[in-house]
Amino acid sequence: MVMVNLILILLLGGVLAMLSERLGVNVPRRVALAVVLVDLGYLLSELAGMPALTQLQAPMPDDPSTWLMHFQAQWIPAFGISIELALDGISLLMVLLTLVLGAIAVSASWTDVIVKRGFFEANLLWTLAGVLGVFMALDLFLFFLFWEVMLIPMYFMIAIWGHENRGYAAMKFFIFTQASGLLMLVATLVLVAVNHSATGQWSFSYFDLLNTPMAEQTAHWLMLGFFIAFVVKLPAFPFHTWLPDAHTQAPTAGSVILAGILLKTGAYGLIRFAVPLFPEAALNFSFTAMALGAAGVVYGAVLAFAQTDFKRLVAYSSVSHMGFVLLGVYAWNELALQGAVMQMVAHGFSTAALFMIAGSLQERLHTRDMREMGGLWQQMPRMGAVAMFFVVASLGLPGLGNFVAEFLVLLGLFQVNPWMTAVAALGLITGAIYSLILMQRSFQGEISATLSSKLEGHGLADFAGREMVTMMVMMVALIGLGLYPQPVLDMAKPVLQSLLELTSAEMTP
Amino acid sequence: MNSSQMMALMPILMLSLTAVVLMIQASIKRDQGVAWWITGAGFLLALWGAGYAREFAQPVTILLGVDDWGLFFTTLILAASLVTLILSKDTFSPEGERKEEYYLLLVLSVLGAVILIQSSHMASLLLGMELMGVALYGMIAFPEKGELPLEAAIKYLVLSACASAMLLFGFALIYAATGDLSYGGMGAKAAVAYSQEPLVLMAGSAMILAGLGFKLSVVPFHMWTPDVYQGAPTPVTGFLATVSKGAVFVALTRFFIEGQLYQYSSLIVALSAVAVASMLVGNWLALRQENIKRLLAYSSIAHFGYLLIVLIALSIIDNAGGGQLIGEAITFYLAAYILTTLAAFTVVANLAGEDDSKSMLGAFDGLFWRNPLQASALMVALLSFAGIPLTAGFIGKFYLITVSIQSQLWLLLVALVLGSAIAIYYYLRIIFAMSKTSGATIKTGSRAAIGAQDILAILLLLMVLALGSWPQPFIAFAGGL
Predict the structure, then answer these.
(1) What range defines the domain where residue A104 resides?
(2) pLDDT tens across A234-250, in order?
(3) How many structural domains comprise chain B?
(4) CB–CB of A175 and B437 under 8 A?
């Protein structure tokens, strides 16, 4: 019931936030922040009493009773569809990330959103609810439902409060995810039909569908259906083209949620569904997948370097970073998977922070064009320092979370394919190039002529209390992940080990 | 015919009675309000009759077969007619004009649809279809001052006449081949006839399918659809899209199953081609439409393309094993389609009325902020058309995909997925227009009182959502039919 409540709190909180606009234009954001924090507090208080968390017993993927939490209720018995939610180490990590970043996103929308604030915060909370559902659902029908439904509030966030080209970006985002989602739906239904003909039972439960016997050819096609849906969301090269538009055009809070959380649903789907459901097909496909990952790492980095738009640069850097996740998942050994999970968390924070900085700049300068910036450090030293921190985090400075993640992925990948590792390692170098270029063009050097004429001697407001607190939270998180990653690794370890065990039987030829 | 068979015809009797009462009323005192109430009461009585007749469900003469399935659709169609009636009240109440005949035509058209649904013989099929169609010409052309309605009515008249002619020719050929005009009799004798004279039988069946295809507006018989949808008064368009098409599809299903036409591979191939073409062409042409009524016309073409999959699947899933699934799929999809279409046309009728310029997409800019209630209803309807989860349309699409997987119709499945992917774009265009915040569209204008049409919109919205998020009761019900 706890997991249902988590989702319900956000859903009803969204309604509350929308209605609260009648009390005053600034009320919704406070309500939204309170709702997310209450949700987070509720989750933590429920976890505190849980023995499994301290012992961290390994959840068996095919035995629900060993998971941290498991909930099942009948929904559409005619097709064996139930409301089945479960939580293990990885989902818990993702849920925590979602709620923390959710609070940060509310903070990012504090002054950014001017019109229809109540409806904006409602959409934000509903998106979070959908994402939580994705991370917890273990009934494939329910999973698909959350996967699709979370798009609608996100679509509205981009379409209503986005920047100049929002219509195009929102449409592209929706069509890419929806169309690829249809492939997943078809693949799911075929999988269920195969399982039905084998067992005579309709079931959409993850636990029943694992180990479904099927022909190699079938498994390959079904795996592709899931794979495409997930890598579009991830996004991996060459399915990434929606991302720069959507991220650039979305309002700041929308970008934070998109980059910080929504992309992770794709990675989560790969780890949870695409590989375990079709281990053999995934193994045969792993070279292609890794090649796409490596291509994404380099391609994203090269394109990021070429951008003049602050947000677009950060968006392309996401493509590059998510390439590491794809590599980590398809290397499919413990080190690489740990790295992928770590990357999901660390990238969530570092990119969210960079998007917030971009948003703050746009709010102050009314442009995202780096050619019109320059020398901002003198104007806003606090923002400059913060930006420097997250830029070096993003390029993988040792001591911060992203380094641990990328290092682990490369280490794990080396055991599988040294050449691919060499290509991916280029990403660390190119990452340094585009990150430093970002810093140099916007914060360092001479102030640009257009900007100084625009300012006419007026100063720019530096980061204030609210913004600094938000940034501090993310800085502490990244330093923590970088210096003492063990808790996160411990949380993910039993899950990953049991997944590896489950698939190893079928993967060894 | 005994009395219990009479009882089985209760909805038809009630509708006929209503028509008679309306004519008598018109001869005593012409009053539009009274006519409206009589029609409404007649529909309610017929609804009651449809429930009452369930106990007596049985074949009535050779012409009509009353069964639970048909009665369910009778109920659905009567409910849709009630919605049409409520919407018509505003459309057809200009000052000082006499419009009672419109209600008479409406009742006759519904009567035709009900007969069509329960027909088990080609004579009753033709009778029902003509009654429904001829009354519809009048309804389409009713705002006699406009050019568009007249054009639409003429177009519909000419093409319907062609369709009827084809239908009749088809009947004649089938009669020549089998010597029987009842579905069941023809089906039983067709196998023998097929071995002797395959061409005559196939030509006859193909012509009948083409005739029905005109009414369903599947490609390549779809040319009339956008013009008629646009030109007809909006409530009539809604009626045409739900009652007329729904009834024809039910009749087609009966003819197809009872006549055992799914055995003939050449028909299945032809039907598959029609289905694929409808899905792709319908969705493709909808992309650039600027008028929401035309857009919905093309979208309905695609939806009937999707629905044809189920009939094609009959050829592979035999009647015993997967029949249950197929029956549920048809019932669910058609019910979801009718509900969703009603919701969409309710909103369009409320907002645009008969002003053609107001049904352009531009008129929907910023609707969320001007009229959140109607906008939400339209949004849910569009999402249901697009097959987004939690709406009735999604469960319908879920059924279609399941059916095509079970019967391994991969080509049709690919067309379905492709069509749905294209369709997202034009449904989203409307939603995007409605969410625009720019310009003068944002007015937090005076909060108007909630009228009957708002309640109707809310009701339909809730039904679409309920059917999509809690489908189990309805699935169980449909499975029992």
Answers:
(1) 1-49+60-277
(2) 888 888 899 999 988 99
(3) 1
(4) no
